[in-house]
Amino acid sequence: MIDIIIPNYNGASLLPTCLDSLRAQTRRDFCVVVVDDGSADDSVALVQRRYPEVQVIALPRNRGLAAAVNTGIEATGGEYVVLLNNDTEAHPRWLEHLIGALDRYPAYAFAASKMMLFDRRDHIHSAGDYYRFDGVPGSRGVWQRDVGQFDVMEEVFGPCAGAAAYRRAALEELAEDGRVFDEDLVMYCEDVDLNVRARLRGMRTVYVPRAVVYHRLSATGGGALASYYCGRNFMLVWTKNMPAPQVRRYLPLLIWSQIRFVVHSLWHIREPAARARLRGQFDGLRTLPRFVRKRRHTTGRDAGRLVVETRY
């Protein structure tokens, strides 16, 4: 059985497109759970009224995306966990191809979708994610026109959790204090943190180019909110996970990347997103001791698992 978990916050205008696309899936052995993260709109009533087949978990207050997804994972028990943003539209054969890849290739723990821009459907949002030793993550192919350059199934660093499949057994092995996603990250980069932890444990991700999803960029979040949490969380994910020998080697790269972000934000200081990133970096520094305490014992050999030869 497949559990599709959709975190939602004030997404009443977005959910019908997403849920209608799931009704059209060719593969049918799945359940859909919408975890409503304290929405102030009529999201819960809309789903209950128009989509009776969907289970709704309504959280009493907004706790952040990581907590909402953890709630959905804990409430389900299928072999596969699929995460899907509420601002997406899945191709009818999306789930068939995504889970089919994990069915065929047991060596992979995660599967990444081919995410396309909702309003420019010939442009890529993510063909799987990558991670750099300076702590900056990214999406393969982002903003590129799709001319077939990412049409090969291959290993990637990790999936974007906006449309990803996971073996539940792998998530249970990666859980920290019973939680899969680190709720101290709140949102943005919580999937990067999971991907880094998975790579360090030898778990691999397959990119499935025929598993297509169309994504409205940051329809629920984005803007200053995204800038704040990216400014905060880039350094926290690196601090928590980078193996000790590589901390000494790559710390200058982390510091230099953070300085570049500061300079860029100061240059654009009149923009709300720039000011939000600076606040995020400051709060990240204040939160750093907590994430140092989260570090697990790693070895120098582990860092080699963070390297995946791939095209951007």
Summarize the structure.
By secondary structure, the protein is of the alpha/beta class.
Written description of the protein model:
This protein has 312 residues and is α/β, with parallel strands linked by helices. It folds into two domains: 214 residues, Spore Coat Polysaccharide Biosynthesis Protein SpsA, Chain A, CATH 3.90.550; 84 residues, no CATH class. Helix content is 39%, strand content 21%. The chain is built from nine helices and twelve strands. Helix 8 runs antiparallel to helix 9. The longest helix is centred in the last third of the chain and has 24 residues. InterPro entries: Glyco_trans_2-like (IPR001173), Nucleotide-diphossugar_trans (IPR029044).
For the record, give the distance between the C-alpha atoms at the N and C termini, rounded to a whole number: 33 Å
Measured by DSSP, the beta-strand proportion falls in: 15-25%
CATH superfamily of the largest domain: Spore Coat Polysaccharide Biosynthesis Protein SpsA, Chain A
Query: Which geometry do the CA atoms define?
Result: globular
* Category from helices, strands and their pairing: alpha/beta
- From the 3D coordinates, which CATH architecture of the largest domain would you assign? Alpha-Beta Complex
Mean pLDDT: 92
CATH class (first level) name of the largest domain: Alpha Beta
Task: State the total count of DSSP E strands.
Answer: 12
Largest sheet properties: 10 strands, mixed
- What's the assembly state of these chains? single chain
How many structural units, i.e. domains? 2
SS element count, helices: 9
What share of residues is helical? Answer: 25-40%
